[in-house]
Amino acid sequence: MKKEKLIFGTLGLLGLLFTACDSNDDGTSPENPEAGVESKYIITATPTAAGSEGVADYILTTDAINEGSISTAGNGIEQDGTYRYYITTNNKFFSMLYGQGNPGAVTSYELNAEGSLEKLSDFQSETVQAFAAVDDEILLIKISRNADSPIASWYRFDTNTLQFVAEGQINTQELADKESGELAFFTWITQVGDKVYLPYFTMKGCCSDSFGTIYPNEANIAVYSYPEMEYETTIHDERTSFIGRYFVNGLSVDENGDAYAFSSSVATTNGELSSTLPSAVTRIPSGSTQFDDYYFNIEEASGGLYVTDQVYVGNGKFVGIMASERTSAYASGNQYAIIDVYNQTVTPVSGTPNPETVVLTSSKSNYVSDNKSTVSVGITTETGSWIYNIDVASATATQGKEVVGGTITAISKLDVVE
Amino acid sequence: MSKQLRNLVIAFTLVLIGVAGNAQNVITGKILDQNQEPIPGATVLIKNTTTGTLTADNGSYQLKSSQKGRFTLEASFMGFKTFSKAIELTGSTQLTLNITLEEATNALDEVTVTGKSVVQQVRDKAFNVSVVDTKKLSNTTLDLGHALDKVSGVRVRENGGVGSQMNFSINGFRGRQIKFFLDGIPMENFGSAFQLNNIPVNLADRIEVYKGVVPIGLGADALGGAVNIVTNSYTQNHLEASYSYGSFNTHRSTVNAIYVSDSGFTAQVNAFQNYSDNTYKVDVDVADINTGEYYPNQEVERFNDQYHNETAIINVGVANKSYADQLLLGVTLGKSYQEIQTGARLVSVFGGWHSRANIVMPSLKYKKDDFIIKKLNARISANYNLGSEQNIDTLNRRYNWLGQFKEYDGAGGERSYSLYKYRNNNGIATASFNYKIDDHQTIALSNTFNTFNRKGEDEANPDNDRYDEPRKTMKNVLGLGYTYEQENWNASVFMKNFFQQNEFTASYNPTGNYGDVAYYNTINTFNHIGYGTALTYFLHKNLQFKASFEKTYRLPAANELFGDVINLQGNTDLKPEYSYNYNLGTSYWLTFKQNLINFNLNTFYRDASDFIRPELNQNQTMQVMGNLASVTNAGIESEIRYQHGKSFAAGLSVTYQELRNDTRFVGDQTVESIVYRDRIPNMPYLYGNADANYTFFNVLRKDDNFNIGYNLLYVHEFYLYWPSQGSEKLVIPEQLAHDVTLTYTLNKKLQFTLECRNITDRNLYDNFSLQKPGRAFFGKIKYTIL
Q1: What percent of chain A has pLDDT over 70?
Q2: Distance in angstroms (rounded) separating the CA atoms of residues B372 and B355
Q3: Matching Pfam families, A to Z (chain A) (predicted)?
Q4: Which of A122, A279, A314, B751 sits at a 20 to 30 Å CA gap from A396?
């Protein structure tokens, strides 16, 4: 073995300057090239490598996500900074750097007539912990985790002019209003009607247990006007633990304007999971700033699973990522279910890989088809990464495009700009 | 030939073990050439004894011995005929003998290999070692870090100007995988106030760079090599001072003073200072402070990059006493101030963030040959750093590159609100013993003990009692070696024991009730054995082969275990990294008349596992180190040097390496990683140096010399991320820097230097987007008073 390596190394010395990389062809070509391209799927992927050094996220484009394979080898737009997050809104694709406290460049792209991604602009943004589209803007929030400087900063970004238009600050200690001085930490941002709702958990922000809380069994949602971002009220409930998770949305609005709130029940205290309430869904009716008496116990309906992430599809149906055992407040599940909040049912999705072989799921930036019939998710198992297309009506998934050698971080779609 | 090699071995041994004390015969004098110019580095020895020395800069020497009888004194230097003279020693002979060596005029046979300088002799060891003769650089304004950049196989990368953080790599290994020593003492605990980026080149006599296999005398857990800085050890009174001024308001000064009394009392002071505003210009996209919009490619001046440090090293003690050849008590005092202009990329710009550090380090050095018993040589040293470091980020502002800012209410920082101040209470003790069994065999034993106990507090975050948790680590590296020397070959085998014990706090919930927390202190222990061998063989007196192998470990550093409480989270589960290192090299010397050509070629192979590398922690708020990667590296480095008499010297060195990812499966994956066997990104792999020097002697008056020097640095472009991935890639461009130095020396006392770095004003980058200074001028004046 050693000898082989030595020979390999020596061979390398003899002039193997670069490893030749077979470029895994997309495998698909435009279906009607003469008719012109109308849209492209965007897949972002991180090559699987040890550690974070030297690893970039690559943006790939493709015509189909239900077949074939695509690779980051010799293919894709390399992006600076290892950790990237994406949002598609206003037919533009935004790639944001997670820079651990440093400001960084956000790059925006659109799809040109040739079907290629074209960089629109770079703009400077803070490293934020929550971001979401609100009308034609993106609202971003940078949230303190330090009790000695309990300030969250919000920024409103105009996706037409590609500029920040306003910013402001929220004192998260005052917002949480706890005797212990715990801070509010927004899990995510959801536009509800003409307001934004910011679900949050409380955290100590100090004392060896920064992300811990002594209030593991309550849900809070701060309500702000938009675009003024003026505080209106806090919606409070004690039937569930907090809504959403760190960096994970837990609040979605259906076609009636009712907001459904998902709790994974994963609060921690001194490093241990301490919520005693089950994972459940509650509801804020349209136009109201209070929970009603709707209560859907996910764990009971699923036979003991809890929900870690979910995406709303339509008609009361969500695709949820489920897990059986709580190991961490930050872990995503390894299996899928259709959660029907109207009929209060949880239907396991068949056709996805055996949960025990699942290494990673793309919990953010999954793609919901235009006709609301399928949801495309990325699953990495011990043997590779694939896009699985989940048919919501039948609760079945089919293996789609393989992403060779990397984990799928986002799936999206852009239309050609006229 | 055998005689000459014998002399070589003797001279070599002398350098290693120093000259024995209790001297009674004293022979002093100077070695000069035909023009009465002193010859530094010439060998003077009493044949068939262990007494011998090398001449100092001014050609002077001093021999001490207690022998009686008739002996032959021999003096030699490369390119000169060997001088010998019979002498009678009474046991208390006091003799002054000035020797003029004649130049060897007729070809090879007359040239003696024994005439090699110390620098050359270190190179003759079986280890793959490069030596920087810093005397040749003492006219420049370089710091030690930049002097190292001239060594084949070594790459120094920095983020910016004076005082900026430097990252060293030796044949693909980097960071803490390489250990630094000052006179054989590990520099691990020196803190940022006393580092290679601020120590002037004048402090050192030479720098030894061991690549891969490290001799046990340097007792440490080095994975990829070691750098030993050997300071000037004047044996007589000496006083020199220098001052330089240059671009970006850069001031540097040094004072070296040594006093040696007849009774053996010694006092040494090395003091130095660096100051720079680092206001060089960079090309950057400037963001509008309000809208975030970028204005691309603006040329702006750096504005929060001031650096200064002031350091003094004071030693007092005795020399040549019956109980000690050298006993020095000393203290290193220093402080540094550094403003932080950018984050990991130029887009992250800061206007007020800075750090401070100080060093208060008492030290002890003890040397004694024939320690307790004959032929046992002892070296003992110890130091303890009481200094502290502080990170100051208290401006709740956001800056752009024009220096404009937005200020926010309340407490906060530009990056992370902090006044964190800590002391590492870091101490090191080393002891090494050498016992010469007979003319051929030597046993060496060395031990290095290292203790660390961090205490810190943060006025900005007073409630954070994390700082009260124990953060202790204790390391011990013990080495045992055996060397066998014959006339034309020598071999050594060695074994090292790596031991580490870490104490830290883990929390738990004692009652199961919410909010309860209790702590228990826990201890982690590592114990590993490394081993290796080094061989050298002289096929011919001018042709040497070297081979070495070792299995070695690098123990996790305190920061990696305990974090820095700001950006790095600790990981107390870290295991040591380890590597198998192989070296094979050859050297050839060719001399004719006044010409000397030296050619070195080394190939190396590294097979390393459990590399400690960063990843994001679970909630992605900090980085955390893990044992993540394995790599192999096969490479070749070569160097050719030419010298013509004393007036002209030139050299060229090139390194090429194949640093490849050897992590085949990542985590639980059963499919091969897509970057398996890919070249490790963000690491230079083809680079080199060229230099040329010409000296005009006796220019305007006798003893007035003028020297013109040129240096070229080349680094081939390389990829920031994995080379095989993506089609639109980010590249660190090719670097080509030309430096020119002009020096005029008056009467060997007063030296004026004018230096121009990056003469073509190229945009240089060591790290992605972090632009280094453009063309810069420096002037230096150095005065040697004694």
Answers
A1: 91
A2: 48
A3: DUF4374
A4: A279
